[in-house]
Each structure stands twice: as C-alpha cells, then as structure tokens.
Amino acid sequence: MCRIFISADPELYRCRSRSLRLSGVATSIRLENLFWQVLEEIGARDGLSVAQLITRLYDELAEAGGDCANFSSFLRVSCGRYLALQVSGRIPADTAVPIRSLDADWVLAGEKAARPTAFPASSRRMGIAQATS
Question: Which CATH code fits 9-115?
C-alpha cells in the first residue's frame, strides 16, 4: 500500500512560499507544490492568476464569516474538494469550462450527497475523518 504513496515525485510535496496582499496586508502563504499546481489550474479556468484567485477566496471567505485564521489549510482543503468534485463529475475535467459558469447549488448538492452519514467507530476514536469516494 505505502509504495503507491511513497513513490510520489518529491517535488510535489516540496513547500514553496508566495508573497501577496490580502485585505491590504502583505503576507506569505506556504504550500506544497502540488497545491500550487491545483490553485493554478483553478485560477486559469476563470482567467485569474493564483494571487487573484487567493485574494478572491480570502475576501469571499471573510465576507461569509468563515475562519481566515488558518487560511493555508483552507486552501489545501479547497484543492482537495476541487479534485474530489472533478472525480465525482460535479466539476468538469475539461479545464476550458470556467468554474464561474457552474451551478454552485448543483455542485454542492452532489458533494453533500456523497458525504457519509456516520464514520466507523475506530475512525471516530482515532479522530480520523473518512474520505468521500
């Protein structure tokens, strides 16, 4: 099992920092290269640079009352959700289709339907969340 994961290109999990401004404040975000690649793809779908995408996500998260304190983790989760929604068919794999053109309610309805209603007892005891398939 582990060979599947340990054979990943080390460049994918090497971290890189990028500096940008969020709400007028200069900041730096450190993520693994894999996540930067996914953010580049998401942004490119709507003609946005990574900095523009991150700024938009930050502003919309703050506007919605979300927790911006752990923003790097939010970005990682966003990337994982994007990939999972592609696998489920809720976000087209064709990157020429802009994210802004999608019906958010339809996309999110599919995500909610795929969530498990209960986790196995052993996973709950260990604090492990079950991944959706």
Answer: 1.10.3990.20
